[in-house]
């Protein structure tokens, strides 16, 4: 309060009558003004800086609400199908294949399923391989194409052992070749056939024959010339 009351009278000088009264009155006015300011601040809920806080938070909430708005529903290309039901309900699948399509362990069915673009449709095509439970030998391979909300069988091979897969937009079917006396675990070779979609169906593009070596221990030796 020294700044408000001053430094006091100079040495040897008598104080002027009424000076203390004026100082007291001035001090009272300042105190009353400070008190009024304090009461006003309490009535408004805080200082000016804090009053602006909730308004800023409200704006942030509005922006955050826009950021977390629901995204569009996924396209049909990401849909997954019940491959077991698809095969079981398909009249084009052989009865023998359906008979083998049963759980191996608990509710695990012997099917391999892959998705990809083979036919240029709006939804992914579905490739289903049905295997045996014991040795996982392919007994049927199928391709399903989405047409008007339903999947239609557009390709099938039921000549075991067989396996189909998608390779860079082409359908590649591998058929293992067994010679007389070959055990199931050791075929003599394989035929790899590549199919391509066109004019509403799959047509064979080319095929490759791979003969397996019968060498033991990895020492392959050429077969004698006939």
From TrEMBL:
Domain of life: Bacteria
Keyword RNA-binding recorded: no
UniProtKB keywords: Membrane, Transmembrane, Transmembrane helix
Biased composition (Basic and acidic residues): 49-59
Biased composition (Low complexity): 7-20, 60-79
Region of interest (Disordered), ranges: 1-20, 48-79
Regions that span the bilayer: 21-41
Name of this chain's protein: Lipoprotein CseA
Species this protein is from: Streptomyces pseudovenezuelae
Lineage of origin: Bacteria, Bacillati, Actinomycetota, Actinomycetes, Kitasatosporales
């Amino acid at each position: 309060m020294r700044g408000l009351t001053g430094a006091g009278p100079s040495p040897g000088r008598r104080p002027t009558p009424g000076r203390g009264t004026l100082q007291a009155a001035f001090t009272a006015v300042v105190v009353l003004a400070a008190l009024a300011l304090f009461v006003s601040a309490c009535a408004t809920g805080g200082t000016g800086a804090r009053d602006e806080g909730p308004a800023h938070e409200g704006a942030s909430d509005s922006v955050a609400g826009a950021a977390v708005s629901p995204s569009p529903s996924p396209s049909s290309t990401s849909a997954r199908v019940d491959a077991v039901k698809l095969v079981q309900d398909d009249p084009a699948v052989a009865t023998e294949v359906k008979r083998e399509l049963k759980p191996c362990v608990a509710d695990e069915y012997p099917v391999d399923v892959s998705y990809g673009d083979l036919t240029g449709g709006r939804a992914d095509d579905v490739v289903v391989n049905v295997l045996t439970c014991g040795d996982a030998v392919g007994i049927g391979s199928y391709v399903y194409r989405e047409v008007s909300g339903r999947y239609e069988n557009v390709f099938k091979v039921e000549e075991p052992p067989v396996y189909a897969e998608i390779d860079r937009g082409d359908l590649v079917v591998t058929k293992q070749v067994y010679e007389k006396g070959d055990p199931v675990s050791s075929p003599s070779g394989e035929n790899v056939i590549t199919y391509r979609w066109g004019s509403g169906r799959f047509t064979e593009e080319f095929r490759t024959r791979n003969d397996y070596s019968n060498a033991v221990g990895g020492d392959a030796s050429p077969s004698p010339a006939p």
